[in-house]
Amino acid sequence: MKKITFILPAFNEEENIERLYKSIVGEFNTIDYIYEILLVNDGSTDRTLEKIKEIATHDKQVKYVSFSRNFGKEAAIYAGLQNATGDAVILMDSDLQHPASLVQEMIKGYEQGYHQVVACRNRKGESKIHRLLTGIFYSSVNKLSEVQLENGAGDFRLLSRKAVDSLLQLSENNRFSKGLYEWIGLSKKTFHYDNVERQFGESKWSFSDLFSYALDGILSFNTKPLRACLYIGVFILFCGLLYIATTFVGIVTKGITVPGYFTTISAVLLLGGIQLLSLGIIGEYIGRIYNEAKHRPHYIVEESNMQSPSKKVPRDVSPEDIRMIFTKNGISYRTKEEQR
Ligand code: UDP
Ligand code: MG
Hints:
Number of helices: 11
Distance between the termini: 44 Å
Number of strands: 10
Bound molecules: uridine-5'-diphosphate, magnesium ion
Helix content: 40-55%
Radius of gyration: 26 Å
Strand order of the largest sheet: 7-5-6-4-1-2-3-8
Largest sheet: 8 strands, mixed
Shape: elongated
């Protein structure tokens, strides 16, 4: 029988965990699949981890990974993808906003051969200002970047094994999942559902989080803003040269007139502003390069009831230099250096 792994990132969701677990298991009375539930505790400070452990003691299909601190939802999803053993994976929030009743529809899409089956929500019940901001976010990301995102299509989706493996190949630290799902491509089916409001616990997104998420969306997938700086720079330089040329002609033909204070100050302010903006954009990119260059792990696991994935042989080690060994966690290896 095929196995579906549920990846559930959870940060302070003590009131939701048990309800969520029951709603998922309830669906499997009628589905011919085995489930695996993989809860990723993202450094919760409430009783989320205890709740997870309680469930895991009486259901062996429940696995968990608990981070040493809050690393963010993107890292939690990445950890889930790395540890999932199912033939397909369903990503779901732990706050009951993603109804488990849609799982059957997703599996139907999977059986039709789609690699991604996406549940896309509408914006029912959301405030006007929130709708307006998300509208601006999607249109600016879609205009500025190579990937095209659909408003409402988020992490709630089924991914085939091939899609999971493809996502794992994209190991960047600064992850913007919505864009990554589009980037890998593969066949996709989308269906729509009515937005569900959160009942227990609270959303972890503040306005500034949303703003930096939007910036991530724009900057992660293209270098167009850098090019825009270049164009603006060229345009300003051209205007400057034109101004100098006309003033010079004026001086030669009519003699020196008194220069205006206003024009000088405006030019300084305008140029200063544009230069700072350009520097800021360049800085954002350099910051990202710096973060990636550190090659830090995406997260640190404090405890788990899963076996760690077996150590993979790095590409730069030649086959003669390694010895395969069998460990309780599967096949691993030792390099010549480590054998000494
Ligand atoms: N989440 C997480 N780490 C975080 C923030 C959120 O794992 O740092 C989880 C959270 O527990 C929930 C999901 O991500 O399962 C979505 O979070 P939230 O409900 O705050 O986002 P929203 O639905 O408001 O977009
Ligand atoms: Mg939510």
